[in-house]
Write a structure and sequence with these properties.
Two copies of one chain form a homodimer. By secondary structure, chain A is mainly α. The first copy, chain A, has one domain (13-120): Winged helix-like DNA-binding domain superfamily/Winged helix DNA-binding domain (Arc Repressor Mutant, subunit A). Helix content of chain A is 60%, strand content 12%. Chain A has five helices and three strands. Chain A has a three-stranded antiparallel sheet with strand order 1-3-2. In chain A, strand 2 and strand 3 (78-83) form a beta hairpin. At the A-B interface, helix 1, helix 2 and helix 5 of A face helix 1, helix 2 and helix 5 of B. The first copy, chain A, binds a DNA duplex (20 and 20 nucleotides) through helix 3 and helix 4.
Chain lengths: 121, 121
Amino acid sequence: MMEYNVYASACPTRMIFDRLSDKWSLLILHRLRGQPVRFNQLLREIDGISQKMLSQTLKNLERDGLIKREAFPTVPVTVEYSITPLGKTLSSTVGILIRWAQDNGDAVLAAQAEYDERLAS
Amino acid sequence: MMEYNVYASACPTRMIFDRLSDKWSLLILHRLRGQPVRFNQLLREIDGISQKMLSQTLKNLERDGLIKREAFPTVPVTVEYSITPLGKTLSSTVGILIRWAQDNGDAVLAAQAEYDERLAS
DNA sequence: CAGCATCCAAGATGATACTG
DNA sequence: CAGTATCATCTTGGATGCTG
């Protein structure tokens, strides 16, 4: 198996990693891990995201083959975003990452408080 | 166990997740998973990072309790960054994420190419 | 409903020069 | 060597109006 140097910018692995290291991609992918979700529902649920960034991030994820966009000919039109098999494999990893944050959030916040305290004194 | 809504911006888990969802944090953490590394070595190895962002990201990771900074009174001064036990638990998850990118990079690039092809035609 | 286009503001990131 | 300071730029976001 071919091994890459992930710290080199030309490395394909690094390219993918960079693509996903933005503010919204992994969070949205995680939200889509279950049932399909509609655009405006995502907009309501993902706190703090703008319509523009949601639209842009969904398009990128679709381009990466991680999610699928399906439009239904209702009036007005209905659009559902769902996860692909490829995306599914990634979202389970993201789930582990979020679980980590869930489990260790307190420790991180405590470390931050202690760090800030040391600076102030 | 308390459960949070990770999609709400006030959620502690979401706050931690947001903190780590920047361009460099996870990559640097991953690089530090083994032996301690010095500042300029990181600067050389992490392709594309600027001195400013390296400095800033290291400071944030230290504040989060994920890495440790140690200065040695040599001339000129030597500084080593190493991972903490808390950081270790996160870096193994990041390793899984990078492994995913390693294994599925080709599939993503293929999806991107196909997507672009569909648009061009 | 599910977007796109535009303009402007704010924040994140980068390049360069300088220092103990 | 390991940074900081300053200025420039690129990315991201908010607001608004418009469309099928």
